[in-house]
Design goal:
about 350 residues, alpha/beta, Rossmann fold, 7-stranded parallel β-sheet, 11 helices, 14 strands, about 45% helix, binds uridine-5'-diphosphate
Length: about 350
């Protein structure tokens, strides 16, 4: 009786436990909080090469590498699903150093996928990206449009999406690839937010130009075929993204095979529009200078998120203003912490 009871308990614990690989990173830690809010237990797995221990505070953190098969296999025995956030994600860097992306995103991803299949875990949620579409023929972008990535980052993510698709009929793997548009903002309640080193993303770079932590923001290209000449992106609040992961997890119980969903708001904003919003929110002008185009940047990437809405019941609830407000609160919090740490 006891042994059976204990086994039943551990199976139930496994069912509600999710391995969040890259869980001490920006999007992974927000997903961990969203999972907890919905009654799941998130176990974080991170080598802390880009993640931060304090972002995983309050959760079990297994500090190990994705290539450490023994530790990974042990962790996978305790969970019913994997959320995979551990990847390099800078377009510009991927153009300069593609091997890093093939190693970490492709080889690392496959190491995780093999360990997942070997452990008999059949549910997988993957952080994919709108970079899989390359330079799309039309905007907004639907999931059926051709995947023709124009940089090694997008190529590495598309490779992994395809690997998930191949594993569905062969091994019964159920997966959702979530194609994020531009993740930004910070959780409103928890002490978590964006912290990349080095920081390359538009909103944090612009806010750091406001606080003086960095020099003037460079505007990469003002001669794009867009109304104000700067690139258009679909900025999506990280808490909206995090909620989509939990919905995708529930959705996996009802599907066979591999599904892909765009996660965006459906609204585009140019670099100039983002700067104007930052100036409204902070009440300060953003020091900036015009610069060359950044290699690998398509002019416009805006999601058609209707498939995610229909299948997952998901819709972005927060807009650009809220993204900038929460990112600004977070930036100020981090600046105050740095000042305390340095005794300034
Ligand atoms: N961008 C910019 N200056 C910066 C960082 C980004 O002008 O310092 C532009 C970039 O060219 C792109 C947009 O802002 O058009 C969003 O870039 P980000 O790196 O935030 O995200 P990505 O679209 O590369 O995923």
């Amino acid at each position: 009786m006891m042994a059976g009871g204990r086994k039943a308990f551990s199976l139930a614990a496994r069912e509600s436990s999710i391995l969040v690989v890259g869980g001490a990173g920006y999007i992974g830690c927000h997903a961990a909080h969203a999972l907890r809010r919905m009654g799941y237990e998130a176990i974080l797995y991170d080598n802390l090469s880009r993640g931060h221990r304090f972002l995983g505070k309050g959760f079990e953190l297994i500090e190990a590498d994705i290539f450490d098969t023994e530790i990974l296999s042990g962790a996978l025995k305790r969970v019913s699903a994997v959320m995979h956030f551990a990847a390099d994600s800078q377009v510009g860097e991927s153009v300069q150093n593609p091997r890093k992306y093939f190693r970490n995103n492709v080889e690392g991803g496959i190491a995780l996928l093999n360990a997942t299949l070997d452990a008999g875990v059949s549910k997988f949620i993957f952080s994919s990206t709108c970079a899989v579409y390359g330079v799309p023929e039309r905007s907004p972008i639907t999931e059926e449009m051709p995947r023709r990535p124009v940089n090694p980052y997008g190529m590495s993510k598309l490779f992994f999406e395809n690997a998930l698709e191949a594993c569905a009929p062969a091994y019964g793997l159920r997966s959702v690839s979530l194609r994020y548009f531009n993740a930004a903002g910070a959780d409103e309640q928890e002490n978590i937010g964006e912290l990349h080193e080095p920081e390359t993303h538009l909103i944090p770079c612009a806010l750091k130009a406001v606080t003086g932590e960095r020099g003037a923001l460079q505007i990469f290209g003002t001669d794009y075929p867009t109304p104000d000449g700067t690139c258009i992106r679909d900025y999506i609040h990280v808490s909206d993204l995090a909620e989509a992961h939990v919905l995708a997890l529930k959705h996996l119980d009802g599907i066979a095979g591999a599904a892909q969903y765009n996660l965006g708001t459906g609204e585009g904003a140019s670099v100039q529009k983002v700067i104007a919003t930052i100036e409204e929110v902070t009440g300060t002008s953003v020091p900036r200078r015009l610069a060359e185009r950044r290699p690998g940047d398509p002019p416009e990437l805006v999601a058609d998120p209707s498939r995610a809405q229909a299948a997952l019941g998901w819709k972005a609830r927060r807009g650009l203003r809220e993204i900038v407000e929460t990112a600004w609160q977070w930036e100020q919090k981090m600046a105050a912490q740095t000042a305390r740490n340095t005794g300034a």
